[in-house]
Amino acid sequence: MGLRFAFNYAWRSLRLGGQRTVLAIICIAFGVMSLGAMQSLSTAINRSFVENRVSAGGDASLNWPDGPIGPEQQAQLEQLKQTGVIGDYVVYSAILPSMLKPAGGDHVIFSGIGYGIDPATYPLLGELHVSEPANATMTDLFKQPDAVVLSEVLAKQHDLELGQELVMLLEQGTIPKRLKLVGFVDRVPNMNADSLFFSLETANTLDGEATLNSVRVVWGQRGAQVAALEQAGWLVSVVSSEPSETADFFNMTLRGAGVLGLIVSGIGVANTMQVVLARRRNEIAILKTLGYRGPQLLLLFGLETTLLGLIGSIFGALAAVLIGDQLTSLFERTSAFMLPTVVDWRILAAAVGLGIATTLIFGMVAIVKANAVRPGSLLRTGPIEVNPTTRRAMGALYAGLGAMFALVASISMGSFGAGMIVFVGALVGLALLNWLFQGILWLVAKIPLPGYWLRLASRNMQRNGQRATFAIIALAIGVFTIGFSATALLTVKKQLDLRADPNTDLTRALWMITAPSDEPQVAAMLPQLQQPALEPIRMLEVTIALPDSEDGPIQAAARSRDQLADLQLTEGEWQAGVDEMMFETWFFSDIPLGSEFAVIGSNQKLRLVGRYDATGSQASSPIVISPAALQQLPVKRGSSIYILNLPINQLSAVTSTVNQALPQAFVYNEVDLYNATQMLYKSLGMFAIAVASLAFVAGVVLIANAVGLALFERRREMGIFKAVGYSTSNLLRSISMEYSLIGLIAGSFGMLAVWIAIVVLNTLQPKAKMGLDFMPGLLIFGCSIGLALLTALAVAWRPAHRRPLHVLREE
Questions:
Q1: pTM score, two decimals?
Q2: How far is CA 239 from CA 54, 126, 218, in A?
Q3: Cβ–Cβ contacts within 10 Å for residue 5, how many?
Q4: pLDDT tens, 33-62?
Q5: Are 605 and 597 in contact (CB under 8 A)?
């Protein structure tokens, strides 16, 4: 027997296998896809969360404890470089997270840290790559005045376009800054998708003063010199390559899910191969009668199962790359990270090898078992007697397969211990759930259900054994994960919608944050909005010296207003005098009332006359001074804040009017903030549901597998039914009821788990007020039944329409 003949024989057998071959390929592909996709996403997340010298932009970050980094500190850094303490450095401006909105628009965007940089020196390590405009550099883009560059991810999330005018607000006390969006980047050193980039000149105008405050360094030939830098007066933070707790959580969850998917797939492959090869007992008996020996049979069927595993694994690997990329993109839109597209070829190759090995070993077990008996025994319909030698060979094959699964799990999890915990835990957990649902199926079969077809369906469901229970497990996990994610998402949505409901009599705040020079324009506009004259809250920065303290002066944000309005006085009395000042309750709470503070740069002193609670404030600061004091002090003026409390049904129209009238101002309202929050939670919920959907896919695969194999095992029964007068619709009704029961059981237990989780969380956190409405819960529950029913009908449709003579002739 030549190799060419063996290959042709194997290929022809696969083609003639029809639906059974397709089911086996789907099972194999799902396992490889599950492991590969989850591993790719986990690796991408890990690279973003685990800080290294490239992603951090250096070996260490430096900060000067006494304020901004001026020429003296930069000269010192240059000297440290010349002496070899550091290899190189870059100085830049790190700006606090802020809010953005399109000029004249009402869409609020929460951004991350902004970076004022010199593109000639930044980044020190890593890459800041401009994706749009094509062939542009950061130096080219920053030639435009007031230019800002965003990440592609942030721009796509909020539908921003090049050339668009944006208004930026660092905090309520600063004057809004109008910027022009001039470019997008698709790679940044810190992987943060919500980062902003400006030139140093633009960064200095955001709050009116030089803001160089951060340094990144790389070590020189002398290695890490932390002590020398600290001795020079710098605060040093060395980059750590240790994974964060967040990265560990994602690694364990996603990679564990991938390994679990591979194990479930292996169970499906085992069921398929056992039945497919059992069907070919007559074929094996005829081959043995014609003189084929054990090695030749192993070659024929081993080549066939290897081809089957190879085809399924290739499809699974392709699906892993595609689905992994889609999950990575979805996580990018959910999180604040730019994830690299990662294909872990090592894990993917291991998954492909394991897919082939799983198919081959389960095929070999059946062949070894059949090869140990005479042809006459195979031609009989009874069970095959296995001798001790064959039993030991089968045990060795199973042990080898288990070792391979454990090895792949260990490689995927990153350590032998973690891999064994996941592998053994998955096996034990699946075994316990299998026994639980086997018991439930037994109870259902014993219950006197109404109707002949329903009783027949319950007994057939029990006869399916672990094929039915593993399908139930996969569907129940999918129902629970999607149900719980939907509960969290809809709870947040309901609470935010309630706050923004235009049909209520509630009022919501609208903020107008402007430069002091815009106050006359706002005063003229208020009557047009049918609003009374409104005193602005004037924000400023004041520098004061603490009484009887050796510490240096402190600089803090303050607000100036005659009336307290939204502040609650907790101690003292407020007269808005020319020398009066109040502190928020947490701000230097040990300093007694009546203490006097010298104002740096002035001969005037301010007296502490009270304390206030700003919990409900819509524009708070740690210090309050009177407008009269503001006129006498050398303070840095900030923004003027106007707050209108309007009925919700008027909020949108008034906001739009103000935006058009004051495009240079930052105008937003509470509903805008609710919508931004809802967008974030919606993205998180969609990501969780997308990952959870893989459990539904596993359930569909296992149901398709179970239906196909059950129809093959019961083909004689079906032929007899049809021969004595049962119609095709009767058979499909039985199958429909059987798998509707499987979906019903899975949906019931999945939703029960959701209810238990809700009760536990509401008990531990009463303010959570989590709950799932009837209709969404019914929809998820119905999806479980519908998926099981439709999958079963799709697989059973063609076999159920076969004529009884054709079915019985195959016997």
A1: 0.69
A2: 10, 14, 10
A3: 11
A4: 877 787 777 777 766 655 566 667 788 888
A5: yes
